[in-house]
Amino acid sequence: MRRLQFNLNKKSMFIWMGVLGFMIVGFMAFFPTMAEEGLQELMAGVPDDIIQVLGFESFPDFSKIDQFFGYIIQYVMMALLVYSISLGLNTFLKEEKDGTIEFLYAQPITRTKLVLDKLMGNLMVIGSILLVVIGLSVITLVVFAPKGIEINSILIDSIPVFSFMILVTVLFLLLGTGLSLILPSTVSTVGVSMGVVFGPYVLGMMAQMVDALGSLEFISILHTTMPSRIYAGSFDYLSYGIWIGVSLALFIYGLYYFKKRNIYV
């Protein structure tokens, strides 16, 4: 079943590999230009309000390759999370909409094994995309690193960034899978995906801009795992713990609910 799930999403997997790979290579190729002193001085004139909207406490120094890479990879992470939660949501909602859920129920396996096998198939998809993203990230960091830069140090400092990217992507897959076990097939998977990813992100931006809401920034996992913060050694364990707890709890409840649920097609 996990192999079938992997094959069903193989086409979208290759598309996302291409899109994210193009983003990384394309934007990193601009680093030598962005590192020019004149352009950096121009960027320094960006108003503070705009900087906060972009999720930064201060604007990145594009003359430093780690900060430039961190700026790019945050948008790659956003795209990854949208795809990851959409993949999870479509695990069973799409089967119900297409009427193929009957085929799954005809298989001689329990519902628990069915869910876990499909989750493993999706993990294979996500893992393949992450392998390409991280691999191209390392290659571009090495290729475009300025002379005199200790590239090994930058790569070592990037390990936590890649680790959090993997963690958050898997969490959103788990979150999406849990929701697919609970929500009715009539819901819009695109709407739910965008809401879960960008709803907390908007709250995080508001928390940065409004002092009275500052304590709510932990709600946005995209802010608390922002590469610029990870490179700076700033970690929000409360945010990580809450998102891990919510994702696991929702998946476990969804599995319990799915085992007792009657599905009509």
What does this structure look like?
By secondary structure, the chain is an all-alpha fold. It has one domain (2-260). The chain is built from 14 helices and no strands. It is globular and about 60 Å long.
Descriptive keywords:
265 residues, 75% helix, globular
**Gyration radius, rounded:** 20 Å
- Tell me the number of strands: 0
- Order of SSEs: HHHHHHHHHHHHHH
The structure class reads mainly alpha
Judging from the principal axes of the Cα atoms, what is the shape?
Answer: globular
How many domains? The number is 1
Percent helix, as a range, is over 70%
Largest sheet: none
**Strand portion, in percent?**
under 5%
The unreliable regions are none
In whole angstroms, how far apart are the ends?
A: 21 Å
Average pLDDT for all residues: 84
Number of helices: 14
How is this fold's topology laid out?
Blueprint: H1 2-8, H2 10-28, H3 31-34, H4 37-43, H5 48-53, H6 65-89, H7 93-98, H8 101-105, H9 111-144, H10 151-182, H11 189-209, H12 221-224, H13 227-231, H14 237-260
Task: Kindly summarize this structure in a few lines.
Helices cover 75% and strands 0% of the residues.
